[in-house]
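task queued by scheduler; priority normal; single chain, no ligands, no partner chains; default sampling; output format set to structure tokens
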Amino acid sequence: MDLHLHGKHFLITGGSRGIGRAIALGFAAEGADVSICARDAGAVEETVLAVRAMGVRAFGRALDVADAGALTAFVRDAHATMGRLDGVVANASPMASGRGVEEFDTAYKVDLMHTRAAVEAALPLMEAGGAITAISSISGIEDYGFDGVSYGTMKAALLFYIKSLARHVAARGIRANVVSPGTVLFPGGTWDKVRQEDPDYFQSNVDFNPMGRMGTPEEIANVVVFLSSPKAGFVSGANVVVDGTATIRVQA
């Protein structure tokens, strides 16, 4: 299926590893130019080179997305470099879990407020319309009983923010959606570390899913890329859960 993304430009925060990197490569596979940011300069450069090797343009910068000024400058510079901006994927997350003030503050600044900062910087630059996607989590829609309240609280807040945003920008031809992954396994990621440090807990999470496995970054990226394309032109304000049936709620 041709998603009609050739020559368009998408920006991904936290785009150097895991789900973010897979999203960047997914857009590149569809012929779209890509801009990414992340904290690790070496990982950013490596991903930029991988994207360019796929025959499209790429722009990258190392920064802390909690720094709204640096993030805003990156969005503007990416637009200036590529000459257009067709979509933003707010993917960066510190995975801050806990009940303390520090964990809440970190999750607030990154999971929620970096999304807002990226969106506010991008909206004036999306002259031809486009798509905004926030990466939330199934922890934002169900309480799994572990001490991840700060993470889940901010991921839940994204659902309201994006729903409201979608209605606000619809007349401008801009769509906004949320993608909520379940457990995703990749080298160096959270669940890879759990697998090594607490194999019993890791296996209990695998067994919890009726599919008997965790997802891959590419499986999340495929949904994000499709939602960002004109093929999903009437999808906005949605929360698309990609979890292999791990959640048990009926989504209204």
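post-processing summary
- The chain has one domain: 9-242.
- Helices lie at 18-29, 41-52, 68-82, 101-122, 149-169, 190-197, 199-208, 217-227.
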